[in-house]
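cron nightly-structures :: item 1 of 1
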Amino acid sequence: METEAELIWSVLFGAIGLGYFIYGKRQRAILPFLSGFGLFIFPYFMPNVYVLVFTGLVLMALPYFIDY
């Protein structure tokens, strides 16, 4: 992580991803499970803060808008 903002956003998205991951595992819902896993992993590969926030918001919104 290069800046403090990247670190803070990564921790925030990781915490939300943990919630999605646990919910998906307990409910046996594949989309929240994969979205939570994606929220764990993606901050390591983002080049800047803007892409990090945009991707995190998209991954958080996917289970809401796509009813699987």
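cron nightly-structures :: done
The mean pLDDT is 93.
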